[in-house]
TrEMBL record:
One BP term from GO: regulation of phenylpropanoid metabolic process
Superkingdom of source: Eukaryota
F-box domain ranges (all copies): 21-61
Pfam name, any one: Kelch_KLHDC2_KLHL20_DRC7
Any one GO CC term of the record: cytosol
Stated name of the protein: F-box domain-containing protein
InterPro entries to which the protein is assigned, alphabetical: F-box-like_dom_sf, F-box_dom, Kelch-typ_b-propeller, Kelch_1, KMD1-4
Protein's organism: Brassica oleracea var. oleracea
Amino acid sequence: MIMDKSSNRAEEVSKDLIPGLPSELAMECLVRVPYQFQSAMRSVCRSWRSLLSDSSFIKERRRCGKAELLLCLVQPLSPPTLPVVEEEKSEKRVSGTPRFGLSVYNATMATWNRVALPQQQIPLFCECVAVQDAGKILLIGGWDPETLQPVKDVYVLEGSGRRWRRGAPMKESRSFFACASVGSTKVYVAGGHDEQKNALRSAEVYDVEKDQWSTIAWMAEGRDECQGLAMGTGVGFCVLSGYATESQGRFRQDGEVYDPMTKSWSRIENAWPFPDTSPRGRTVVDTRGSSRLCRFSTDRELQSQRQWESRDGSRKWNLDVEVTQLPTSGSSVYVGSSGGESVVMIGGRRETKGLLMKTTTEKNAGKWSHVNDIPFGFSTLPFSHASIYV
């Protein structure tokens, strides 16, 4: 009754969670412990550690209304400076570059903190993606902080335990690529650029449970600085816009959708008619029902078409695009999603506060409300983000 039928392991360990208490009552107690204490809970006994490692524990917290919503942000910890290449022991190393960190905003408790990556710096410009059913946060690819070369690295954070582990590396080094969680256990990546800044056509998929990467069919076009999103009910993977090697900074108006059933790509036209603007940090996708992409923009852009529908050649995939006005002008903004709502982060400098606001992706989209003043040290605009219930 309490646990999902598929979670046999959690059901077994729940039999003796708290000596002297029925398992149902013990579970009612444990799911109410705040997230900040869950790491310590794992050290109490083997049954508690097994329970917190099982995805059904998070599902039960959500069922009881006790789950906490985390917004995870990959952001620079200091203002960027011009890189300086130094020769050291026949290896090129770059100094003066910003360090990146993983910041976490607990939307339930309205608190900010930073999660350390043991003995490592977080790769610059890595992609952050959450796999809710598995209870995991992933950091994928990006640049090596020392050499500024694209990497294959994958870091996995267990949601309940706050413990990092190295995941299986990607097949190919890449940065500024499309990335999205699709389905319950899969993460897709595609495009980006390689060590020579060449736009990539290649794509691959990661099985979170098996910790295994597999190569999938290549896209028709190379796409650097593209945006990834799940399509429909979470079964398709869309790579939006991006640009070719020879046309850097001129963003494509189309996208490509990968269908896991047919293992093939199809083109979706007129999905991003903003050639001078990257889709990264300006889009939110709502996958409840049909896919709806919200493009957040300035007043000037709102004078043009505000809503349209894009379909691929097979007519299987469609994307409803809507333009929504930002609550502020200027470029110091980053738009993302958290718990089904759109959020906009208005950045400040290192010594100033920022602002976090939200709007829903329903019919009243565009009505912004203040969420939180971003404290000193957390207000630099992120490169990537993900949200997860824990």
